[in-house]
Amino acid sequence: MEMEQRIATTNRVTKETDIALTLNLDGSGVNHIDTGVGFFNHMLDGFARHGLFDLDVVVKGDLDVDTHHSIEDCGIVLGETIAKAVGDKKAIKRYGSFILPMDEALILCAVDLCGRPYFSYDVQFTDPKMGEMDTTMVQEFFYAVSYSAAMNLHLKQISGRNDHHIAEACFKAFGKALDAATMYEERLNGTVWSTKGTLGT
């Protein structure tokens, strides 16, 4: 099967954020990320590099309030862009999962690009912040991604003590799982992998 590069762009402007994001699912991990939140930049870099996605994102948000709107809205935009880039989902594997170790932390991530949003989250942090990013925003970000992309997304912490390691393992595991789910399966001969013959219903 001849592959076309799956690239999509989303621009979203509200009173709280102005976000421009471009995603190439068939990239090599090259990225330019400027969210205004240093730790979040680091997390998105791990997602892109380990998923082999080319990612260009600029977020201008109301950081004078806090990081919430910038990170949550970025999740919404990333989810929308994933959905656009995946397109009709013909011949993709649809499911992807990865168990990622990072020192003492071990995170499981599983993805189903089924067209029906569902988010399951079982991750615990010790401190309220990592850099300037609230630890609660890890959950908010992935919730926003899963619902705006209409994907089934599970994140489960198997072990871990260090908040940085736990968060980074979540983002990297998501990149690896999403990469697996968006890969092509030639044996499908261009059809959708579903017993119903369609996804999202």
Report on this model:
The protein is an alpha+beta fold and 201 residues long. It has a single domain, classed as Ribosomal Protein S5, domain 2 (2-Layer Sandwich), CATH 3.30.230. Helix content is 33%, strand content 30%. The chain is built from 4 helices and 10 strands, in the order βββαβαβββββαβα. The strands form 3 sheets. The chain has a 4-stranded mixed sheet, with helices on one face. A 4-stranded mixed sheet has the order 5-6-10-7. α1 packs parallel to α4. The two termini are 27 Å apart.
Q: Briefly, what is this?
A:
This protein is of the alpha+beta class. It has helices spanning 38-51, 68-86, 136-149, 163-182; strands at 7-13, 17-24, 31-34, 54-61, 95-102, 105-112, 118-122, 129-130, 133-134, 152-159. The chain is globular and about 50 Å long.
Task: Note the topology.
Layout: E1 7-13, E2 17-24, E3 31-34, H1 38-51, E4 54-61, H2 68-86, E5 95-102, E6 105-112, E7 118-122, E8 129-130, E9 133-134, H3 136-149, E10 152-159, H4 163-182
Parallel strand pairs: 3-4, 7-10
Antiparallel strand pairs: 1-2, 2-4, 5-6, 6-10, 8-9
Helix pairs in contact: 1-4, 2-3
